[in-house]
Amino acid sequence: QVHLVESGGGLVQAGGSLTLSCAVSEFILEDGVTYGVGWFRQAPGKEREGISWMNNGDGKTEYADSLEGRFTISRDSGKNTVYLQMNSLNTEDTAVYYCAMGVYSAYWTRGYGMNYWGKGTLVTVSS
After folding, report:
1. Where are the alpha helices (DSSP H) in the chain?
2. Beta partners for 61?
3. Rounded distance, CA 52 to CA 116, Å?
4. Deepest in the core among 26, 76, 100, 110, taking most CB within 10 A?
5. In this structure, are residues 36 and 73 in contact, taking their beta carbons and an 8 Å threshold?
6. Closest alpha carbon to 8 in 98, 74, 69
7. Are 40 and 100 in contact (CB under 8 A)?
8. pLDDT tens digits for the chain (127 residues)?
9. Cross-strand partners of 41
């Protein structure tokens, strides 16, 4: 059982930046299977959407088309932590942010393949 815990959420003014952390109990690595960690968010009244994904093995990344450029995923393997750097935040970025781990899917932005989820951290962007 993999455990993930998000942190770093809070209140930030529009135009500001915030870095979220996702502490993982382990990075799953399995021959022939691509595991990774993804960041997702769910705004009030909206469906959950994928933000970014990082391969547990080689560290390759993918981003949702609409968010690439403002958000950056990274990791510190020594600390078992994955980060999400968020810049130029606006009120539409207000959401609960989740990290998850699972097997890569071309539909990862919809959460496909993600078997383990954290409980989320709330980000509120004020105008």
Report:
1. none
2. 54
3. 16
4. 100
5. no
6. 98
7. yes
8. 999 999 999 999 999 999 999 999 999 999 999 999 999 999 999 999 999 999 999 999 999 988 768 999 999 999 999 999 999 999 999 999 999 999 999 999 999 999 999 999 999 999 9
9. 49, 97
